[in-house]
Structures are given as structure tokens and as C-alpha cells.
Amino acid sequence: MYRCGLLTPEKEPVPLKSIEVELQVRDHVATVVSTLSYDNKEDKPIEAVFVFPLPGDAAVCHFSATVGQTQIVAEVKEKQQAREEYDDALSSGQQAFLLEESDQSPDIFSLSVGSLPPGESASIRLEYVTELAVQADDGLRFCLPAVLNPRYQPRGSGGPSVEVTSVPASQVPYTLSFSARLSSPRPISKVESSSSLDPLQFLNAEQTQATVKLAAGHKFDRDVELLVYYKDAHQPSAVVEAGQASAEPGSLMGDPVVMVSLYPDFPQTVMSSVTSCGEFVFVLDRSGSMDCAVNNTNPEQTRIANARDTLLLLLKSLPMGCYFNIYGFGSTFEHIFPESVEYSEKTMEEALKKVEGMKADLGGTEILQPLKHIYNQPCVPNQPRQLFVFTDGEVWNNKEILHLVKENASSHRCFSFGIGEGASSALINGMAKEGGGHAQFITGADRMQTKVLQSLRFALQPAVVDISVTWDLPKGVSATVLSPPITAIFHGQRSLVYAQLTGQSSEAAEGCVTVKYSLAGHPSQSRVKFSLKAVDTGLTVHRLGARSLIRSLEMQEEENGEKPEEVKKRVVELSVQSGVSSAYTAFVAVNKGNNETIQGPLVRRNVKTPGMMMMTCSMPMPMMMCKYTSSRRAPVRGKPLSLVTPVTGQDTFF
């Protein structure tokens, strides 16, 4: 017998019908609007729960629901308060909607659509803004994460986790449509993608505006990666965005906010004297999940093979006379040499042979212990330590890892590589940011060599020190910096500074920001002049600035003498004021306009998320449907679900 409609592999109805994504790129900033359509075909009210990935540095700034002719706009509230309002609404038979960021990882969100009556439809609108990273070939990278890989939680670790139900991408029973509109002061050269695109359509003769969309027949089996290229090289710039008219002057949302983009250009004389020394410590993820496919385009290419190829290329490119060592980790870790050794033909050949034989056979993804071991080893004198980490990012203790990297930032630089689609952007970008290095994402053989050699070039560049930022503003105008201090500067790579501008000035007034630093003993500086005339760009810059400050505060914890409760209070106040999500807040909306109480028992439906788990992993079927328990409330309250069939030598998810 055949059953029609949206069904899970277990033949349960799925209420999520489609996802429509509209992307707007303005120079190097992206605004993303996603519309999720739900349709309850069952004969009873349901609660649909959808756990999905977003870029780790995204500022989620709008969440609303439309039911029939009624639109309900969600408010940002303290997370526990939002959860209680949602639960109370469901208990009283009202419709409610909840969007919350994971406590442990800012690149995972949970969307709950509660008390959707039989035969009812609901449309969810989600909006976020994010910065686009500059690639090795000067392209700007946007990634719409479609794949959510389950995150490994080490045995015995505490803390709540999020319930994730993943299925093979080919079995995801809802559709995705994607379109993009691009605009820039400079002509657009081309747009490339990992997915098939319709031809680029220019909207003006100057080719500064264009549209593009996914080609028909796109399968929801991979991240949607877009690379945007402009004809002119990236140039330093600054944008002053007008504040919100309804907000109080002197507040973050009421004052103008400036976003300064710097692209340091080091003197050729300094770059030609690039160091050939260094202690290079390579850390390779050998957990069971690394046996999965890198992507669906080439399912035979595994993550471990991709990581091996990346590491082999780096090993062959190191300068003679430096020092190096290689670690492999899973549930345990091991290293090739007892301590870092000098790089020579002999040690290189020995390392190459061992790397070529490395497999994904060390169990779960536990990176904390090898990192602690490495940081406890004395550095080689006069050889700056450069840490290279290769992982698929399937870990749940992101905050612990990032705090450890940050605590040891003075003794090394960290260069991270996300291997395969679904790699945690929060972990990969976070390690590089806290470790003063650079992040790359390797999702196939394309551009791998360019990315690898760029990271090596950055690692061989002497560390930039004595970094300071000064503001030259008219009398009566002051700047409050929202972004964390700049800790790393690389040749040609963008550095962003956000600041709140308080005070009055004439529209013709100008400001200037100067970043001073020292490179290999040579004092240098980058300067950007800008007009203080504020423009209305929809509060995009304000939200990115707020997100930057929120992230910095979340990382502080007990730093600077502040207690966690004080930091949390500041984050909640900032999040509510700016309307930007955080680890301590959530969006909640309750449909109070409908006085009819929804009758009948509420049935929970977990909407399946595409995952890479079914590709070439040597894991049994029960693992593909692994779940994480939400600490918020039943129906899965209590002890997390364990696997039906544990597998030796593979990741174990709890």
C-alpha cells in the first residue's frame, strides 16, 4: 500500500512542507530571510520541532509566524522566561512559537511550532545578518548550512543538549528554494557555487547589481555555498548607519553605529623577509565520524581522506629547519614523535608514511585532552608555535574548547580546518579567532591547495604585535567599540571594527580610525577616513555590532572579575534591546488573538534534518536516527536516548 503526503521514514506525517530562502548581499554583508511553511495534515493538533544549523556568527534578528490572516511577531526574552511562556501557552490550548539558540553552540537553533490545529497551516519567517568571509582567491563566501551532523558529547560531561533527528539527505521530505540579490559599489565579476545555478542576471549596465538562484531540481543534500567575486580588489571602507528613530538617544540602537573594514597591505620589503622558522603542531581528527563522506557530490571521498590529503600537502610545503609534530585524536590521542622534531628529509618521509596510513579508528571526538597535552609541552625556543587543527567539528563542548584556546593564545596561533559539509562553523571560526589564526573550510578537492597554502603563508608571517585602534572624531563625538580587540592581522585579510558613535556633529563632518601595529620590528598602520553622515541601511550594522559585543560577553564568563550572573544580565539586556539572539535569550510568540482553545492531545513531531551520516560511514542504521535530549520539557525528558547498537571504534552519541 502506498501512502501520500509528507512522511518520515517511519511513515509519520511531517508538518514542514517547504523552505524558501532569500539572500541579499550588499558588498560583504548578507541578509538572509527564510520562510518555513508548515501544514498539519493530521486529525489532531501537533507540535513540530525543527533543529537546524545556521552560520555561527549570524545575528538572528527577526522571527514571526503567520497563521491564516494573523501575523504574530516574536519578542526576545530571557530564555527561561520565553520557555515558560511557550509551555504555558501550549498548556492552555493556545498557539505558540519558540526559537532558541543552543546553550553550547551558537550555530544550532531549535524551532518549535506549538498547537498547530488539524488542517491548519503556518508560515514562519526567520531573518539573520552575517558577514561574508574573504577567501584565498578574494571571493566572498556565503554558506547556507543544509546539513546538520550530530555532535559528539564526551562521556560524563554535564549540561543539556538539543534533540536532533537526522536522516539521509535524499529522504528529507521538504523542499528548498534559494534566490540571491547582489549589490555592490564595484562591478560583480562572477558568482560560483557548489550547487547548480541559473545564469547570473545583471540588473544594470554597470553590473553592480545582479540576481541568481538555484537551478531547478536542486536536492537538499548539501550545504549551499555561494562565492561572490568583484572586479576590483577589496578596499578599506566605513559605513555609518543611522540609529532607530524610536530608540532612546545614547543607547546602542538609538545612536549611529560605524562598521570599519580594513585590508592591511604589508610592505613588500617586510613580506619578502617571511620567517622560515616555527614549531608546527598538526592535530588530526581520527574519530569514527571522519569516515563519512565529505559531500554528496563524491560520496566515495571520505573526510579522513580529505584531511590526510590536506595534511600531506602541508607537510611537503614546510620550510627546512622548522620543527613539527603530528597528533591524532578520537576518544584517546596519540602522536608520531614524543616531542616536536626538526623538519628534515628523514623526519618528513617518516611522517608522510605514518599520515598515509592514518584511519578514522580512534572512537569519539574528544579534542580537549590532546589540546591540553600540547599546551602543557614547552615551546621550542625561537620557534613560534603554530597549531593546525583538522576536524569535522562534531563536538558538543564548543565553549570549553574555545576557552582553552583563548587561555593559551599568548603561546601559539591556531589555524583551523573544517573538514566536510556540516562542520561546525562556530567551532572552526571560533578556534581561529580565539587563537589569533585563520579558519578554512574544506568541502572537497576544489580550491583545497589554494586554501592550505594560504594558511601556511599566514603561519609563516611574523606575528603582528602591539595592535592599537585610535579614533579621530569631531569635538563632542565619541566612539564606544563594540567588537573585541583585534588580536591577529594578516596581509590582505579583512579586519572589522564596530563602534557606537555618541554625540552630535554636522553632516559634513568626517572621522578617521587608525589601526597601528608592529610587524617584524617595522611599525605600520592602516587608516580609514569616513563621513559621519549616517545612512539608513535597515539596522544591519547595528545588529552585527550587537552580535559582536554579545559574543565577546558570552566568552568572558568570569574574566575581568565579572561573575557569570553579571555577564548574563548584560547579555540579556543587550539582546532584548537589539532584538538579536544570544545563548541566554530566545524568541517567543503567542497567538493571543484567537480565543478558541485548541482541543485534543498534543502530538510532537520532530522534523528530520538532513545529515551526512548515511553516506559512507561504517555505522549501523540505528545511529542515523540518534537523538539528543532537550532539557526544556517532556516528551523526551530524562535520560538521553542511547544507541541501539554500540559500535567499537565509532563515535558514540548520547
TrEMBL record:
InterPro entries: VIT (IPR013694), VWF_A (IPR002035), vWFA_dom_sf (IPR036465). Residues 279-460 form the VWFA domain. It comes from the Eukaryota. Pfam families: VIT (PF08487), VWA_3 (PF13768). SUPFAM superfamilies: vWA-like. Residues 1-130 form the VIT domain. PANTHER family: VON WILLEBRAND FACTOR A DOMAIN-CONTAINING PROTEIN 5A (PTHR45737). This is von Willebrand factor A domain-containing protein 5A-like.
